[in-house]
């Protein structure tokens, strides 16, 4: 086990089982998991880019259309862990296939079946829940097909699928929605999801849950205080980021003096930074996940300070925004790595928790930033983000020495289909 307590985790290969893994193609498995994460991330973000079109077509207000985003987030944050808990005894291959099938079916409601607003909201909750289930099962599957020393990089593949959907999928989906209508954009999601489903059936290996890995037993380890403490690091880090980023547009207007199409450039910079950070962070997670969380939290703090102090200069503001996205998302694989390692036998269930922690952080950061904006303008939201980021640094340092119990046994390796 490594110095950060992050030895073989989440189904990583156990020595002596390479012969059984011979039929598994790690590259193909990781590609399917990345593609699935990308398509689900696109579906999540499509509403953001077409919110005005949806509001008009469904005859609801823009804030009501925005509730579709909230519904997806709540489904992911709450429904994801619940579904993971309920499916702990099932083979991860079957869970991934079922989650993808439900995702396709739920997106058929707005895409083809003409769902009205209430049905669309319910569908979004279901989509978020199976998205959370997919993340957890994908993490276990990804780490099961690679050697232990590449665990973080395997996790980063799944995480970067979602991050890339924001950087690339959101603008492309928005353009598609404007060209063929918002329902047409969701038709594209259904088609892509169906392709992913077919690939999942053809490529994904069997990753059975070992004997004794029942839901209650896993929950005892997954929700241990040491795991919750590390999850708090993620919540604080993303709360700090989103406190500022949620109100980046008014900040650019009030402080930087940037409006119009240039703002889209800043948003693209942030999206690209998150994609790079989420993928590159995997290598640092493999080297030392605990230290990476400290460095990432410090980097977010420094970037937020730079945005507040030098925000009047457009070039320096762009660099600061890039730093926030890059360093913040780079902590994603390390959080996943640490949580799964500390959960030990509860790793399959614990794999669903970082996504929930991130969504809680997003909600808390947006709320805290909004309250600050009401009282002191957009710059105040950045100042609040700095305060939260300092807490994230302290939490990352305080949890860096946490270790999983020595008695925690290594999870089973995958077997070929």
TrEMBL record:
PROSITE patterns: MFS
Domain Major facilitator superfamily (MFS) profile: 29-404
UniProt KW keywords: Cell membrane, Membrane, Transmembrane, Transmembrane helix
One Pfam match: MFS_1
Localization per Swiss-Prot or TrEMBL: Cell membrane
InterPro entries per UniProt: MFS, MFS_dom, MFS_Efflux_Transporters, MFS_trans_sf
UniProt keyword Thylakoid present: no
Domain of life of the source: Bacteria
Keyword Membrane applies: yes
A GO CC term attached to the entry: plasma membrane
Parts forming coiled coils: none
Membrane topology: Multi-pass membrane protein
An MF annotation (GO) of this entry: transmembrane transporter activity
Membrane-spanning segments: 28-56, 62-83, 95-113, 119-142, 154-173, 185-207, 227-249, 261-281, 293-310, 316-335, 347-372, 378-398
Protein name per its UniProtKB record: MFS transporter
Organism in which the protein naturally occurs: Agromyces agglutinans
């Amino acid at each position: 086990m490594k110095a950060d307590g992050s030895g073989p985790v989440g189904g990583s290969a156990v020595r002596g089982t390479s012969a059984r893994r011979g039929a598994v193609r790690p590259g193909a498995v990781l590609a399917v998991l990345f593609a699935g994460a990308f398509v689900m991330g696109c579906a999540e973000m499509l509403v953001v880019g077409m919110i005005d079109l949806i509001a008009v077509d469904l005859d609801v207000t823009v804030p009501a259309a925005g509730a579709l985003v909230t519904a997806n987030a709540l489904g992911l944050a709450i429904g994801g862990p619940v579904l993971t808990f309920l499916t702990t005894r099932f083979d991860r291959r079957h869970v991934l296939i079922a989650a993808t099938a439900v995702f396709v079916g739920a997106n058929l409601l707005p895409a083809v079946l003409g769902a009205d607003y209430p049905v669309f909201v319910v569908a979004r909750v279901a989509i978020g829940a199976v998205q959370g289930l997919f993340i957890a099962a994908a993490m276990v599957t990804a780490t099961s097909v690679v050697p232990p020393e590449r665990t973080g990089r395997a996790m980063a593949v799944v995480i970067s699928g979602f991050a890339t959907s924001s950087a690339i999928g959101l603008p492309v989906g928005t353009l598609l929605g404007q060209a063929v209508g918002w329902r047409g954009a969701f038709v594209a999601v259904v088609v892509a999801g169906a392709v992913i489903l077919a690939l999942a059936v053809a490529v994904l290996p069997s990753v059975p849950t070992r004997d004794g890995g029942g839901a209650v037993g896993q929950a005892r380890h997954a929700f241990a205080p040491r795991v919750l403490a590390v999850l708090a690091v993620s919540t604080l880090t993303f709360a700090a980021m989103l406190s500022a980023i949620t109100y980046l547009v008014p900040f650019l207007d009030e402080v930087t003096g940037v409006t119009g199409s240039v703002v889209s450039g800043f948003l693209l910079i942030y999206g690209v930074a998150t994609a790079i950070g989420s993928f590159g962070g995997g290598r640092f997670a493999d080297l030392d996940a605990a230290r990476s969380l400290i460095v990432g939290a410090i980097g977010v703090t420094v970037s937020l300070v730079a945005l507040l102090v030098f925000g009047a200069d457009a070039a320096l503001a762009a660099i600061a925004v890039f730093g926030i996205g890059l360093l913040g998302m780079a902590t994603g694989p390390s959080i996943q790595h640490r949580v799964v390692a500390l959960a030990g036998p509860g790793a399959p269930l614990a794999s669903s928790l970082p996504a929930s922690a991130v969504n809680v952080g997003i909600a808390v950061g947006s709320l805290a930033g909004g309250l600050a904006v009401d009282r002191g303008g957009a710059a105040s939201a950045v100042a609040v983000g700095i305060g939260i980021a300092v807490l994230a640094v302290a939490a990352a340092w305080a949890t860096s020495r946490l270790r999983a119990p020595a008695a925690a046994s290594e999870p089973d390796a995958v077997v070929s289909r």
